[in-house]
Amino acid sequence: MGPSNADRIEAPVTVKAYMMCGFAAFAGILFGYDSGYISGVLGMAFFKKEFGHPVPTSIDETGFLYSTSNKSLIVSILSAGTFFGALFAGALADWIGRRMTIIIGCIVFSVGVILQVASTSVGLLVPGRLIAGVGVGFVSAINILYMSEVAPRKVRGAIVSGYQFAITIGIMLASIVTNATQHRNNASSYRIAMAIQFVWAFILAVGLFLLPESPRYFVKKGQVDAATDALARVRGQPRDSAYIQDELAEILANYQYEMEIGEVGWIGLLSGGWSPAGNFRKVVLGALLQMMQQWTGVNFIFYYSTTYFQQIGLKNAFLISMITTIVNVCSTPISFYTIEKFGRRTLLIYGAIGMLVCEFIVAIVGTADPKGHSAQGALIAFVCIYIFFFASTWGPGAWVVIGEIFPLPIRSKGVAVSTASNWFWNCIIGIITPYMVDKDQGNLGSKVFFIWGALCTACVIFAYFMVPETKGLTLEQVDKMLEETTPRTSAKWRPHETYATAMEKHSEAATVEHVEPKSAGV
Ligand code: BGC
Quick one: 471 exposed, middle or buried, by C-beta within 10 A (0-12, 13-18, 19+)? Predict the structure, then answer.
């Protein structure tokens, strides 16, 4: 076994493997639709009447509106539920499996959807969104884990980007549906938009029921036979093929290696401290990466753009918001190619630079000439370019990297903590944004983009100093790379031996030591 073996390990990518992972990406539609529909529903006249309170028509032309606190609660309670769901899901996924956790997530989610559809007041809508959020938390954390674990490494980045693509499609579908039902003058206006969420949960649960469990979960459980079966299924190879045997040996050896050096459990997340391959450092990296993804300010657009565009005097606020969701969808597939070609780190650094430039332009133009016709044109254009940069870099990039940096003993918990961090910041931004922007509150208007621009500058610095390059490596090799490099030198690292060979050498050495203990010092 030489270096060439370190390169081989995996079977050629089959159409079946693509289809399986492609299907798992379907979870993204659920996530995207669920977080995206609220923006349109909040703008519906009937919804304002049902859930708001009377206001003078000078404030809202329908004569009804919600208080800033209710608006902020309705939007952000979902992410609060998702935060807890994602955290809990990590432990559950190690216990009952990745697949079952996602299926249970779909069931919990559906209970939340029933409450939302039935609601006629904030009192029922809020618990409905909280419970649905817990379900989305299960799905969003564990789906990334599942996809990263079953995807062939050559296309792992592209496949996880496919998940992000599905998120963007979900957001776009939500904006199309709410646009279509917004003029209905009864509860069907919002109920249709809410009830469609069932469809995604149903398709995802049934599909996952038919897909195999992650082979790495079985390895963790000590069920090597089941792991072989699952691996053979996801790779489309017979059980006894050399590819399956090699890849399994690698997964097993890595797991054994990890178990020798690290503990598991929540406390295990702290082990190794800040050393280059320390668990704690990886968890901090994952959590910060997801925090930074939210700090780019993207959900200001996807949650509140309609009201923001109205506030700055744009006539077609609803339409422009929908266009931003379309730009989001169309730009994401670019990352399928670039994430494998240029790597995760490069994409994150340049993506954040692109975004911050756009954000400062929007802030400056919007502040200098808030109501000017050409200024508004420029503002819309740069919001769209900003979304283009997000969708082709940080959108998928943040998810890809958290699927790759954690070693198996802490993978599910690491991904869960990182995902929870995404939702935590998503929630915080959801809560504070209306207070910063609403006319009767902070009334920042376009100035809010100065804040997003500054935060995006922090994203560049973070990506440059902390994000390693994980492109083209098996999940096991990523671990070795982290041990042997710094983020800035990581892109040049090449795999030099497999875990299986390393473990072989290790046990040979142990035997020699055992047989001839005295020879060691000679
Ligand atoms: C983010 C979401 C965001 C979406 C937009 C995702 O990667 O985590 O918060 O709404 O991208 O496409």
Answer: buried
